[in-house]
Amino acid sequence: MKQKARIIEALSGIVGREQVLTEKEDVLPFGFDGTAALKKAAECVVFPGTVEEAAAVVRFCSENDLAMVTRGSGTGLSGGSLPVEEGIIICLLRLNEILEVDADNLTLLAECGVITQKIAEAASAEGLFYPPDPGSMKISTIGGNVAENSGGLRGLKYGVTRNYVMGMEVILPDGTVTFLGNKCVKDVAGFSMKDVFIGSEGTLGLITKVLLRLVPPPPARQTMLAMYPRMEDAATTVSEIISRKIIPCTLEFLDQVTIQCIEDYAKIGLPTDAGAILLMESDGPLSVVEAEALEMADIARKNGAREVRVAKSVEEANELAAARRTAFSALARVRPTTILEDATVPRSELTKIVTFIQEIGKKYQLRIGTFGHMGDGNLHPTFLTDEKNHEEMEKVEKAMKEIFTFAISLGGTITGEHGVGVAKKNFLPQQYGAEGIKLFKTFKAAIDPKGLLNPGKLVDVERKSRSA
Q1: Which domains does the chain show, CATH number per domain?
Q2: pLDDT tens, residue by residue, 372-396
Q3: Where are the alpha helices (DSSP H) in 64-178?
Q4: Residue 101: beta bridge partners?
Q5: Nearest 5°: CA angle at 183, between 163 and 180?
Q6: Which residue in 282, 213, 207 sits closest to 55, CA to CA?
Q7: pLDDT exceeds cutoff 70 at 2
Q8: Phi, psi (5° rounding) for residue 404?
Q9: Mean pLDDT over residues 282-307, rounded?
Q10: Is the pTM for the entire model greater than 0.85?
């Protein structure tokens, strides 16, 4: 890093020397996120403790043409928080206070470093409900959720993070602090600027506070497990449930590989001989829940489910949901490298994509465990591999490309909730085309003209110095 001593001295003057890391062993954990096989050496990590400190750091970096990467817990799955050369990592974990729970307006205001589960717990303590539940919610931050527009198991009925963001405080690339949005349920004054920052992956500004919408909790719920001999039958079940105008809280899918890995890991009694499992959950008024659950069970049996098991208690329902949340951890124990992907298609095309993923695994002789949010068309084909095996990794790359290409051909997308980052940047033009990418770059250049915020992520833009 250019003039490293001067930079460290200046940053230390803002946040304190103990909040600036530069030693190799200290910055090592910041050289990667949750994305397998993507690593890069970090040079300097700064931990501002207030918004004012964070803004001052951004202002200093802007004035000195230093690239900036914002980071929370580092749980991202697309390489979005990887370090960049000659750049500063700004870690916002110290901004971790829930500032307000407003029961009168059904809102919650939190700093960006608050862990997502703490958001849900704070809402619940006031008799309210924050629905987004990404698989990493026990360790991911709300700022990271907003930056990546995270989803979760309840996305089918309740939507993703974007649907609950009413406002946010952001630091712009020059260090200016502004608040976008408010507590109003209706607000159509001008551009919806907050929505531009949701899912922007740190390329437009630093999200420091988030104003969230809360909802009343559902009064009842029922959880069921449907077991199938074939993956395709589970996919057909989901398509028919949706076509019948039933929108359950959760419709989660596990293939045989994933079932076996979860059972080896958690030992909760999943049927390891099943070709696929659907975790189905209905919530709402008791009469509606009972009717929905009965109809979904009938649809499952009609489409080949050999058994539909109803959870007998809240504890059993929570255990089944927890088993689904362990899918990634369970798969990660099998091989040295676990590459979790994120293809999404219209729900009417689920059977096609599930079958295609199976065929791709056979074609390239790869072990792929597939699970995901089948109710909203979002599947996670997970490659169990070894990044040191270069021949196998080449097959993985080819397989991923074919899966994404096929998803796009079905009217789908390369990511339903993990973001683009570095991992999927090369696939983005295939989805958006040249004009779409041009629009991305135009917007990025307008807000971040120097190209200092998270460069190299999402789309490539030219970095410009003050003398340019």
Answers
A1: 4-91 (3.30.43.10), 98-213 (3.30.465.10), 220-409 (3.40.462.10)
A2: 999 999 999 999 999 999 999 999 9
A3: 116-125, 142-148, 155-158
A4: 108
A5: 75
A6: 207
A7: no
A8: -65, -45
A9: 96
A10: yes
